[in-house]
Amino acid sequence: MTTSRRKFCxxxxxxxxxxxxxxLAPAGASCTNLFNNKLVVGLIGCKGMGFSDLREFIALExxxxxxxxxxxxxxxxxxxxxxxxxxxEKEKAGLKVAIKKPxxxxxxxKLLEDKEIDAVIxxxxxHWHTLIAIDAMDAGKHIYVEKPLANTIHENLLVEKAAKKxxxxxxxxxxxxxxxxxxxxxxxxxxxxxxxxxxxKAWAYLNWFRVKxxxxxxxxxxxxxxxxxxxxxxxxxxxxxxxxxxxxxWDYAGGLMTDWGVHMLDFALxxxxxxxxxxxxxxxxxxxxxxxxxxxxxxQQTIYEFDKFNLLWEDAIGMEEGPYGRQHGVAxxxxxxxxxxxxxxxxxxxxxxxxxxxxxxxAVPFTKxxxxxxxxxxxxxxxxAKSRNKKTNAHAGIGAHVxxxxxxxxxxxxxxxxxxxxxxxxxxxHTEANELIAPTYRAPWTLPKI
Length: 450
Known about the structure:
Elements: H1 5-18, E1 39-44, H2 49-58, E2 63-69, H3 73-92, E3 103-105, H4 108-112, E4 119-122, H5 129-138, E5 142-145, H6 153-166, E6 170-172, H7 180-191, E7 197-206, H8 225-229, H9 255-259, H10 261-272, E8 279-285, E9 299-305, E10 310-317, E11 328-334, E12 337-342, E13 345-350, E14 364-368, H11 373-387, H12 396-415, E15 419-422, E16 427-428, H13 431-434
Parallel strand pairs: 1-2, 1-4, 2-3, 4-5, 5-6, 7-10
Antiparallel strand pairs: 7-11, 8-9, 8-15, 9-10, 11-12, 12-13, 13-14, 15-16
Helix pairs in contact: 5-6, 6-12, 7-10, 10-12
């Protein structure tokens, strides 16, 4: 009879306790180290950012990749080959590899049954994040989940609550949290040098793609489309609702607001040490695409009202030049100057006209970032998972907060009205808006209860 690694861990702790050696195994200690001193991971959702994340995991000597899961066999087989090649390259670099070939699954629940897997990477479309994250934590796994943490306000609150209940390490893929120049910029904002900040702008203008009309079509061979839909409503297959472009449909995601918005809004909120807004209003529409080609707007502006400042979000598909000549970014506009930051770096532009001389501040020339955020983010998660340190750089509380603010903006857009938020009651002053707080799951899937 074989003994599983987790059972061996439990038995070892019992023996240690009986021998008076329990101090050697502190409360919450991880048993990760029993597998070649490595963290064993599985990937669920292999097509896009999930695989980008996995590359960074593979690059670390202290990580073993045990399994891959995807409902598209074509993607699954391709990524299996990619992983095997990356493992060969890892060995050539002099790093030890114990697992040479990952196990493959079409159902994430089967992957979660593997007791040797310590952590899972969740790279599925947004509408699956909640179910998989909670099931994974219930199965004893730590989770690295792509942003946004969840696809509705209610689901974000559920996952945050589940992380506390199951006492698991969670890292949300807001990897800029691990990029030093963003933290340097935040430290400058918090210093007060900019004076009173009355307006914060955050934006994303992306011109590297446009969505083209495509007809409904048969489900591609090898794709379990019903499982891909999961808790979302039943619809005919259309390539525009599938890989990558799923993000433009409310059933699965929240458009640029919750795609790029969670990255930029994260630091807009962090810079202002802000909670939830008092009110939200949003407008925009399908200004550059044919009507009906997608649900989410291709152009959107959203105003969040806080006690002493406003936050303006802007996005557009098919345009490149945003504020300050930057495709994306965050700008903190203070009495004495404006700090602008994006993924490439940050700078401070002083107010030089009509100001008392004693209030003129020094410019901060553009300071280039190292752009190693994703690599550092994965390292942070691995270190926290091995030590059971739940204060990752983007833990569930951080991920839930910014995702909820993003969803609030989309709800305001969908109602077409200015809506007011009661953070104590976790609801709006608006009936239609409140109906969008929680999703309706398609049977047999059910919304988790924590």
